[in-house]
Amino acid sequence: MELIVVGAGPGDPELVTLKAIKALERADVILYDNLANKVLLDYRKEGCELVYVGKTPYKKYNSQDEINALIKHYADRFEVLVRLKGGDPFVFGRGMEELAFAKSYGMKTSYIPGITSMLGIGLSGIPLTHRGISEGFWVITGTKKDGSLSKDIQLALQSKTTLVIYMGMKNLPFIVEEAVKFGKSNIPAAIIQNASLPNMKMAKGTVVQLPELVKTHGLTHPAIIVIGDVVELAEG
Length: 236
Ligand code: SAH
Prior knowledge:
Blueprint: E1 2-7, H1 18-26, E2 29-32, E3 49-52, H2 64-75, E4 80-85, H3 95-104, E5 108-112, E6 137-141, H4 152-157, E7 162-166, H5 172-181, E8 188-193, E9 201-206, H6 210-217, E10 223-227
Bound molecules: S-adenosyl-L-homocysteine.
EC number: 2.1.1.107
Organism: Pelobium manganitolerans
Keywords: Methyltransferase, Porphyrin biosynthesis, S-adenosyl-L-methionine, Transferase
């Protein structure tokens, strides 16, 4: 019994690792998420079973307990289980929870990193760091387990480095509110939806303009919010 937790990358199926492909080729069963590109499933061997365990954003389609139950169910029937997750499994991906569960169930476990969706931002022309402009980046979730905004966003807004927010669309009004509170309303900001995919969309302006940009550009999940001067480096 083996569980391999595999990062599927940001969306473009060519942005997956060779190691991930090899794991997909070995799998007896693949449990895949919403954000993992379905094209990757074509690497499966004949007879490999596919199980969709997608979670639609903010609505728990499959709770983690249910996913653990599924892992148990398939581990009893198949030798090699691959859990394919969008981006990287250890970046807001609960990969560790599933590995811990599998381990406690006596399974051999491994993790294959994936390109996290934030790195897809570069494809819209925004670098996360840039000499003389941003000395680093904060990466924070916009939605904690209880749905609220992380207090660390306040800390990040007081720094000069880039702020990257995952899962922030629902709490965008609160993010803007915080930025205003810290005198950062006019700092450059962008929202990138479907990074690395053919339907990628990007809108940029200042932080206070973001809610309006969401409306005019019809932006929705999955999207990443980037706040900081690096946004100005993007053309268009
Ligand atoms: N483990 C994933 C993140 C899962 S949390 C990773 O490493 O990328 C889900 C959040 O990821 C979404 O709310 C969104 O903020 C972000 N996301 C995932 N794929 C994305 C994409 N292609 N473009 C923009 N944001 C994406």
